[in-house]
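A quick aside before the break. I want you to see a complete sequence-to-structure record at least once, exactly as it would be stored in a machine-readable document. Don't worry about memorizing anything.
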Amino acid sequence: MPIAIEGGRIPFLLKKWATTNSAEVSKLDSSPLRIALVNNMPDAALEDTEVQFTELLGAAAEEVPISLTLVSLPNLPRGESGLGHLNKFYFGMEDLLNSRFDGMIVTGTEPKRPDLREEPYWPAVVELLEWAENNTRSTVLSCLAAHAGVLASDGISRTPFADKKFGVFEHAKVTRHPLTEGLDDTVRIPHSRWNDVKAESLRAHGYEILTQSANAGVDLFIKQRSNSLFVHFQGHPEYSSRTLLKEYRRDIKRFLRRERETFPTQPHGYFDAGATKLLREFQKLAEKDAKEDSLTEFPEAAVAASLENSWRSSAVRIYRNWLRYLLQRKAKSPSLPSMSPAVRA
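That is the input. The structure line, written in tokens, reads:
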């Protein structure tokens, strides 16, 4: 079933999975789940992130009708193209705060400062999280948004890694919960982050850890806040099969531009033996002649052809469980919160 995009316009890349016809998604239910996607990713990843979450929600929904509202926080660094895209397809922060939603998904962004509280968008993050406690049934916080959430609500600070935690890691299901129902005992989830929040700090502040990795730490953890279940991911179950490859190429480009000192480490558990060999050969070439033109030799097509999305089934299962949770909450208290449509600014 297609997802209805609020606002009357659909970004080009979403046309395969979305519609503007709310009646089309209401054939089985007169009241679709209303979900806000607060997409804060940098301009280069803005549209890819829309596709990743819309496609994942569509796969997880089965016959559950969904109405999706696109939103972004203010005071994020944006170029002309990013601002133009937001103006065409996104609602503003005030529109969000004047509505209520069954569910909300908040993405991270690329931080510029070690202390997130010094970021220009921090006041908006705090306001958003406080609003979500009483105006959503559940809120998903992805990666940096998860770090911001535990910092704002419980003062839990991040711990930096010596190197980027980058790749696809195995996680054990450590707690039985409706969100992990139907998952295998071990699941694979992508990560891409420089910082970590520790299990002991989370448990000390009342968080329940659902999945954890010996190599990547905690991934999925939850905490009830007022009327809303806050669901946190340090990883990225929404990633497509090529997302880590794109990020790896981006980091290589930064090395070649001398924006970083070291050549990036290959993502863990992601490339097969053939792709690993090709990329090591490219690394030798790039380190020998470190200039941006070297990227013309990057074996992207050959490597991409070998990639498999080994985490897809787990990601769909987790989000299907989340949507079922929203439906159950809605059935128990259909008028809490009451839903009013957002109005584009």
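Two observations worth writing down. Residues 243-304 form one domain. The two ends are 28 Å apart (CA to CA). We'll return to this after the break.
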